[in-house]
Write a structure and sequence with these properties.
Blueprint: H1 6-9, H2 22-33, E1 40-44, H3 51-63, H4 77-84, E2 90-94, H5 101-111, E3 121-126, H6 133-144, E4 150-156, H7 164-167, E5 171-174, H8 180-193, H9 200-210, H10 214-228, H11 234-241, H12 246-257, H13 261-273, H14 278-297, H15 312-319, H16 323-340, H17 346-358, H18 367-373, H19 375-396, H20 404-416, H21 424-432, H22 436-444, H23 446-452, H24 455-460, E6 464-469, E7 473-478, H25 481-489, H26 491-505, E8 510-515, H27 516-530, H28 535-540, H29 560-569
Parallel strand pairs: 1-4, 1-5, 2-3, 3-4, 7-8
Antiparallel strand pairs: 6-7
Helix pairs in contact: 3-4, 5-6, 8-9, 9-10, 9-11, 10-11, 12-13, 13-17, 14-15, 14-16, 16-17, 18-19, 23-26
Biased composition (Basic and acidic residues): 535-549
Organism: Planococcus massiliensis
Protein name: DNA-directed DNA polymerase
């Protein structure tokens, strides 16, 4: 027999063999035992977390000759045929390669026929989000009221692409990424059964690279075993997975502590030459510094270390750090990771992050050392202490705590500061390539998209509007800086918003966020530098070509809510009255 990969040979055949997902296993087993199964299920979650395996196990349990049971027996004819893939009553359908409505209609026509040898006819539709809109519409009525002998199990990695009408007719189960401990335990079981010696540190490296997916972990394990031969080594695992050794982490961390930026950049250059991805490096460094922080605050929780191993050198390195420094470094790396998503020069971002970490402020000094280092600071502290005593005395006597101007000044200064860094270059790129059809498409569908968003997401856009758009991106202006910052920091919002907008416009637009004040300045500078006319001049020169944005930062077309009302009721029945 030909060699089979680990993830195929060791696919779970019962709920007890599944790793993690205890909330899903318990719910399905209770439904099986008490005959409370329904007609449609939706399994959603990241790749390699057990969606298809769970669907097959559930199908076996439903049609097991010993039913009702919480676990399939895997011995009866029905269980064996489903395991082998020869059962005609369990139909697996790949929506990725059969997305047209014709294939879906062929399935629906056969739904009404009773199962040949089993209690239920079960349809497992994998990657269901790949179906076309017509296929979804064809499936909708059957999914709502199928015959009693039919069960649908839909599996997807992108549930947000499914119509809400489909989701509402299914029991939804969200699969979570598997923990590193679950993945390591499963790999130990596989290697023990295969009689292959292993090193637990090697398995940790593989589990870290798998990022919560069991299939990815077993595939990498297969590669490491094939590459290593008789015995798996840490160097082999690092080479196959693209990770870096713990010694390299130690060397770079020690160089950063010693503020030896030359050594840190040299080591980084060596890693990049060896083929390491800077984006992956940032993620690994965040995890490594998290491990250092964990061993500092909770030395007994060494089992929770994700990247580093518990050894004396690691503990000695942890003692050299101040927790505030680790918090600051993790914050720098996290922001760098977000910025890398929009650039092809990821190595430069990584080098910049190392420079910021080295040049960060030193850990806070004690009051004694501060006094000895700065007599002026000591005098200032004494002055502030006297002021506090005076204010306390005034409060006792019923006087005002402080002049209004004294409190207003710091508040005004704080309000004028903004932590959001406006991406000026990307906005100017959109303005250079801006087209009127693109901004019209976004504005026309704006109200519909807003209605489909989660309430927490749509709340961010109450005071926002699209002001310019190119074929691949659009500028979204916010009235308040804080809303702009919150939207930029919320990756889930950005992805969901872009994908939902793509459904209605047919184009994948990347949103670029900008506060109101920054947008007006950027737009004014762009008009001046490119010799364009202002909005007032454009309206006067009717014979000249229109620009896709106006001086006030608004698209030169109708209000999106007016457009939506005209689409729903018709232009003849909509009358616009200006306040």
């Amino acid at each position: 027999m030909a060699y089979q990969a680990f993830y195929r040979v060791y696919r779970p055949q019962s709920f007890s063999e599944m790793s993690g997902q205890s909330h899903i296993k318990q719910t399905l087993q209770n439904a099986l035992l008490y005959n409370k199964t329904t007609h449609a299920y939706l399994f959603s979650g990241p790749r390699g977390t057990g969606k298809t395996s769970t669907a097959k196990i559930f199908a076996k349990a439903l049609n097991c000759e010993q039913a009702p049971v919480a676990e399939p027996c895997n011995e009866c004819a029905s269980c064996r045929s489903i395991t082998e893939g020869s059962n005609t009553d369990v139909i697996e359908f790949d929506a990725a390669s059969n997305s047209r409505v014709e294939e879906m209609r062929e399935i629906i026509e056969k739904v009404r026929f009773s199962p040949a040898n089993s209690r239920f006819k079960i349809y497992i539709i994998d990657e269901v989000h790949m179906l076309s809109n017509s296929a979804f519409n064809a499936l909708l009525k059957t999914l709502e009221e199928p015959p009693e002998h039919v069960v649908f199990i839909l599996a997807t990695t992108e549930p947000h692409k499914l119509p809400l009408t489909i989701i509402s007719r299914c029991q939804r189960f969200d699969f979570k990424r598997l923990t590193q401990a679950d993945i390591v335990d499963r790999m130990v079981e596989v290697l023990t059964d295969a009689e292959i010696p292993y090193n637990e540190q090697v398995l940790k490296v593989i589990a870290q690279a798998a990022a919560g997916g069991m299939r990815d972990a077993l595939s990498l394990l297969d590669q490491v075993v094939s590459f290593s031969g008789d015995e798996m080594t840490l160097e082999d695992a690092l080479l196959v997975t693209g990770s870096i050794s713990q010694d390299m982490f130690y060397d770079i961390a020690e160089a950063l502590v010693a503020k030896d930026i030359g050594q840190a950049l040299t080591l980084l250059e060596q890693l990049v030459r060896d083929g390491k991805d800077p984006v992956r490096l940032v993620e690994d460094f965040i995890t490594f510094f998290r491990d250092l922080l964990l061993i500092q605050t909770a030395p007994d929780l060494h089992d929770m270390l994700e990247l580093a191993s518990h050894e004396s050198r690691f503990e000695e390195l942890a003692k050299q750090f101040n927790p505030a420094t680790l918090y600051e470094w993790i914050d720098v790396l996290t922001k760098t990771q977000q910025e890398m998503r929009f650039s092809n020069h990821t190595k430069i971002y990584m080098e910049t992050a190392l420079l910021k970490m080295v040049q960060a402020d030193a850990p806070a000094l004690t009051s004694a050392s501060q006094a000895s280092a700065s007599p002026e600071l000591e005098a200032k502290v004494n002055q502030l202490e006297q002021l506090v005593i005076q204010l306390q005395q005034q409060l006792k006597n019923g006087a005002a705590a402080a002049p209004a101007g004294a409190a207003a000044e710091p508040k005004r200064r704080q309000r004028s500061q903004s932590s959001y860094k406006t991406p000026v270059g990307r906005i100017e790129d959109v303005l250079r390539n801006a087209t009127k059809p693109d901004i019209q498409a976004i504005k026309t569908n704006w109200a519909t998209v807003m209605a489909q968003l989660q309430k927490s997401h749509s709340a961010l856009l109450n005071e926002a509007e699209p002001v310019a758009a190119s074929p691949d991106a659009f500028v979204l202006k916010f009235k308040y800086d804080i809303h702009c910052q919150m939207a930029a920091d919320n990756q889930t919002f950005s992805v969901a918003f872009s994908q939902l907008l793509e459904q209605y416009t047919g184009k994948a637009y990347t949103p670029i966020f900008v506060p109101d004040e920054s947008w007006l300045k950027i737009r004014e500078d762009f008009i001046k530098s490119n010799g364009l006319k202002s909005g007032a001049e454009e309206r006067q020169a009717e014979s000249e070509e229109e620009h896709p944005f106006s001086a006030e930062g608004e698209a030169a077309e109708e209000d999106p809510f007016i457009a939506e009302a005209e689409r729903l009721f018709g232009k003849d029945f909509v009358e616009v009255q200006e306040d």
